[in-house]
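TICKET #2291
ISSUE: user wants both folds in one file
ATTACHMENT 1:
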Amino acid sequence: MAQLPITLRRYRPADEDAAIELWRRTWQVSYPAIDFSARLEWWRQRWRNELVPSATITVAEMNARMVGFVTVDPINLDLDQIVVAPEAWGSGVAAILVAEAKRISPKGLDLHVNKDNVRAIRFYQKQDFVICGEAMNWRSGAPVHKMSWRP
């Protein structure tokens, strides 16, 4: 993907379908053995019932097209989702979204990342997150690292 200006804006309800499809497509590239299309209704319910009501959601666009988003709950410091379109990996979108998440939640951020997602772990470490614990994802049962950033 050519390097284009990245713009950020607040999530709007009309973005729901594009955000969920981006989420599905990105996870499908990261974990090709799992059929994420079969989970679309579950994702839609999680989006509507868990993330939209409690998180500040910021959308990243290139050329007026959604290429990423981040969901942050500054009350509990939770960075639940950071999603970047695979074709935009390496373009700086993820770093811009993390910087925005830090602006939204200046006291700190906590996240969980699958232990087998080495690329994401390295990225978060470059963004000054540190591994501070281990757990199991209560939804999938996958082992995860808890990572935190504090100013």
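ATTACHMENT 2:
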Amino acid sequence: MTDAATPTSPLREGTPYGWRWAPAWVLTFVALWPAPGYAEGVMVLGALAAIIRLLMARFRGSSQLLSGPAWALTSVMFFAYWSPELISAIDSVDAGRALRESAVDLRYLPFLWLVAAAVANEKGRRTTFGGLAIITGLWTLDALVQAAFGTSPLFWSLDELKQLISGHPMCSVEKTLLVDRLSGFLGPCNLKLGVVIASLSPFVLFAAGKRFGTLGWVVAAAAVGIVIMLAGARAAWITYGLVLIFSGWPLLGWKRLALVFALGAATLAALALTTPQLHERLERTAQALAADQSGVDMALSGRAQIWGAAWCMIKQEPVNGVGARGFREAFPACDPLHGAKPAWGKGPAHHAHQIVLEILSETGAIGLLLWLAGAALAWRAWRFATPEAKDRARPAMLALAVTVFPLNTHLAFYSTFWGGLTLMLAALYTGSLLAHNGSKPAQG
């Protein structure tokens, strides 16, 4: 019998099974986020390719792909996310849809193995993390061009291509006219620029600091920070503030980092004077200081009303929630304003806009316990990792930590886009932290 690690084995490094294509696959998935259908297709194809490769070899030599602990933690992180979804479907407000969604989301598991494999050795890690830094940097430069000239070159190119192929634009004129913030490469119909850039910013800042030192970090932090400010999502401001603290402190020290924050506050004030939309957003934030509930709700863009509905759902379904992605259907019965026009316009809220409330309202106490178990195991892996392992995983760790930071508002973690982004970060974290001792997999 041929040994799996011998040069004649299909598992040897350098063959397709060595998965040297994994970093390119991950970067293609990220680069296609402006076209979510294509990005989803790349993710599904990657998951299928991972399953086929593993089945062809009957999982032999899988330690060449990922270390044993990396296999375990990547799988645990997936099941901490997916199991609550399945359990909540039992008596969901829309059980049929919930069961279909949980079945479809099984595709994430092999994709997470693929993502973790992309960073399981030094070359793959350098390619993947460096590629994410370059992509995020290009998105940042594109958004700065939009801020200066009013048009995102990347989105304009994609929109022209879409019209050439289908005859229809990526976003209607009516929605384009209603945009009150920087939209960048995602376009005016998908206003997630700020939160996406903020979550991926650790890859840019760590790469800039490592390659160009303190000056590189400061320039990159300023460019990314301006884009996040103008993108308008206040949740992204909190996320990015955490990134600045934990990436800048080891490089600058507390005193110089405090100066960076002071300059950032001055820049925000200056931009508010010249940007009416940003000025309005800061004014709304100041309304949170008002004593009455309406002022707080206005400052939070209606989220106080959404959170009230979430608490209602938690009290009604405390064990396993109303079902993942069932918030929209359950909202009317729990709306504390009983059908009055909400601050966001019209229609029910689609999710709780806060990770803890989303988990509790949609998946109940069981879901929260499973999420906490996953987080505890991820933290335990970090705690007992070597300094070298922590160093190589730091960008992914920080990106994941700030994305799920509980004292903030959030996008829907059980949505295709944000759920996929979060799970990708989890796999990048586990794959890089528990890599093959920071080197290539062993060869025969």
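RESOLUTION: both attachments delivered.
EXTRA DETAIL ON ATTACHMENT 2: Residues 1-18, 438-444 have pLDDT under 50 and may be disordered.
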